[in-house]
Amino acid sequence: MISTLALALLVSLTVAPVSTKAKPSPQRGPRASELKILFYPDAHAAYTALLVGEIDHYTGMLLPDQYFDAVKRPEISVSQLVTTFTVINHAFQSNYTFPDRPGIRNPCNDLNFRRAMLHLADRDSFIEVVLKGFAKRIDVPIAAPSAAWMNTGLIGANYPYPYSRASAVALLERAGFKDHDGDGIRNYPIGWDGAPTDPKTGKPVNLDPILYYSYDTPPERAQITELHAAEMRAVGIPVEHRVRSYAFFDDVIWTDYNYQMATDGWSVGRFPTYLRSWFHSEMWIPGYGGPNAYTPGYPDIDEAVDGIMYAKSLEDAKEASLRAQSLIMDKYALWIPIWSAAGFYGYRNLLGVVSTPSTAPWNFFTQMNAYRADDPTKPIRIGIVPAPPNLNHITAMWVVSVFTMGPFGLSPFPFGLNPHDAMIEVPLWSQDWEHTTWMDGATEKSTSRFWINKGSNWIEPITGKVLAPFTTEGLEFNAWYHFHTPSWVRAFYAKLHHIEVPSPHQVDYHWDTFSVFSTYLPWGWSRVLYAPAWKRPPLATLETKTFVEEVNATTPGDLALPFRALGAPVEAVSITTTAPGYATLAKYTQFNIVKGRISIFVDLPDGTKITVKYWARGDYAGYTCGDPAIPWSEILIGTGPWYMTALDRLTGATYKANRHYMLETPLLGETDWMYTWIPGPKPRSGHMKITVDDVVVATGAYGSGVGGVVPPPHWIVIADLAPKQGLIDIYDIIAITKQYGAIFWSPPP
What is this structure's pTM? Predict the structure, then answer.
């Protein structure tokens, strides 16, 4: 039998003399012309839509029963096993009180109570019985693909909370949660703050039911919660299990922190910097939806998670991560980590899908590369569950919101991640980038520098017209707007010191600390705003304020303006003064926004009149920002590969391909998605290139197929480029080799 590599070389060398003439596509943007994203109430409705041909792909991982059904259907292609960067957990609200019961101490505030609840979580049973093994158990709040970052002293046999009712009972007794009246329900401990006394026994009354919330979809989340609740009831802890919608969670659980225990889950990045967002006291913002909805914080956890985010090296970050995990799980028992999603995805009627064992099918590369097998001119139809609670640039936190806003560029990352290896970066709207430093006095701090691809444009919804080139203009407005909101996005800008814009295609973010991760800080989940659309009420107002030196201002220094609130400065326009030689101050050298405040760097004489003009943060509330005063078509503006043409909040959205996109349509033949950098000074150029490595990817899967069968071990979706869908055959190899040697995705000069 011919080896994979031999086949790759034989085929590629045979056709190379002809295929090297292949050129980049003259078409820009996605291969498909249209996209539809349809909303469904639950996974079963979405899967049914897939079966009847209403959609081509459901973005959710197939539930176990769906998988076993899908592999029997020849019209359905099933992905290889994918383990995702997700953390699924059950959360405690461990504050001293919580909103529904403000007058009594919250039992989840007690360490031994939380530890007991951890011992009652039979996580292996949850995974095997409810999820039917379609999950990867995690013992710490780190996604399964990031196993190298896990604290081995806390995982596997070292997990400190193995399932044990006896251990849970012992901890509850030690904490004073005893059944004084023998009715099978434990009482509040003696002396418990706010607990009434039973006049018959002279002891505290029975515990109020623990308010335990679960999502209403998928149903497995509620099933697992009920199993855990049953264990709690079995040891005398009353539980009120409440099944609620995503919208309810958005408004009540993750905004007001009005719960005691709840199902939870996150899509995360490749580095565990997310631990700072989840557990740092700075991120505890009840009433505004800070990402830490779990604990008001502890100084030692703050120090540890700061040590991750602001590490000087990956080694330092890993050491801090191990320490943070020990504090979160062992010392304070703040979470019940359960699993990372590991399973299969289903689709039909699509070719050119980009998916690997670590990358789910619906992603940027699939959006650019995929096409309908039955008719390439027809729209790709995607199903998501449920309908997004909002499409608000500032407050949207759900994956369904990101999926709906992502095509037009909700988070137009400066670079993507290679689908085979998340440690390899692929330039997108940033042609190049670097981490460098600046000196704040004697202290070295980080600078993130980006050079913007000169082919990028802001696109108008509905019409697809170019509104303006995407340059550095507006990026200061964007950064400081996020900085001054109480939303969870602010986490990525919290340590921003100042910004400089040396040219229309270069922006320098200067940070107030040193961090090996600083390059990623402005883009974690931050939403780049089209500033001209935001510079109007209620989103922002142009303000002019007057100050007098030594009366209500002192220079050098900050001007007294609102901070992290309505009216805070998000862009400094100009400063004029009555001082000789300082009629108009120069931006960056004589004034700038520093740590969120407009700061003057020169010493002005006493009595100088100072007039500052600036854009101030307004009110961004609404389903879309500014709704209903501002229509969605005037605010959902982006730079992405698609633009939105229609939106129905209940049923879905439609999009058309952005033919003014910075990247041309990929050549059908790219499978390894490795970007080749051209050596030289920054900003460097580079390109994608069809090479023998792309052939090797496909020939490694040669002969494999799905559609009515269980995916074989060597099946890989990414190589399925040409009809017949669901089979890697000679036509897929030819699709690659006829493009052999061609390059694409070179940035403009």
Answer: 0.91
